[in-house]
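Q: What would this chain look like folded?
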Amino acid sequence: QVQPVESGGGLVQAGGSLRLSCARSGILFKLIPIEWYRQAPGKQREWVAALTFSGSTNYADSVKGRFTISRDNAKNTVYLQMNSLKPEDTGVYYCKCGESWGQGTQVTVSS
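A: My prediction, written as structure tokens:
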């Protein structure tokens, strides 16, 4: 399986924004459901957002209204726009394309 590659993480102050990217090669990319997860230190990995091939989106209650998931099929890339970031958003963010997981990208939100 082709592994997706995340990027865009970093250190940001509370209230700031980041945009994560998840790139995956493959001609069937546009048909693959995409999900973002995150794992805070000492906690279990939790689901954050999902995007179906038809464009439907779903979000965890904790990020609803602040995060937006979208895709650019021409670039085989999915994005997670994160606004109004909070310290509790800190963690490693993982992209899941179908059944393939990326390596993750670190997001740190300082108070």
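The two ends are 39 Å apart (CA to CA).
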